[in-house]
Design a protein that fits this description.
This protein is an alpha+beta fold and 171 residues long. The chain has helices spanning 2-16, 20-28, 31-36, 69-74, 79-88, 119-129, and strands at 38-43, 49-54, 92-103, 111-116, 138-144, 150-162. The chain has a six-stranded antiparallel sheet with strand order 1-2-4-5-6-3. The longest helix is centred in the first third of the chain and has 15 residues, at 2-16.
Amino acid sequence: MASLMSQAGDALSKLMFSNATVFRQAMNIYRPFIGAGIKVTRVSKDFRELDVQLRKLPGNGNAFGTHFGGSLYAMADPFYVLMFAAILGPGFVVWDKSAKVEFVRPGRGTVTAKFRLSEADIAAAKAATASGAKYLPVFQVEVLDAGGELVARIEKELYIRRKPERKAKAV
């Protein structure tokens, strides 16, 4: 049974990282995002553009009636890693290494974040890891309110490395 569950999880993961629509739908039923009011509103077919919103709902704010800082961070937490994982494929290890959040002003109402990866970002990751070395790029995303005002700036440092080729076992 455990093997069957593992195979189903692997199949879902493969589908999720090869189909932007399935990815968006899967992220939107992820329970922590539902509870926080986070929704992925758009994913480009090539995974290079992704838009997220955080709605202010009863019960997801802080003691001052504004967005909880943890929710502002959560709306940005996984996306650069997941975008690179989808673009680079299973031959790469992609993880978060560190993060920094600067809260600029209280967030009220619906706030949004737009994640973008350029061809240069992807080419740099491939070139830097071609020899098997690790690559530690830093990306920044801004969280904006409905009026376009900056609410938070989130910086993510990633860890990207090619997976080593597995050697065949001697028989």
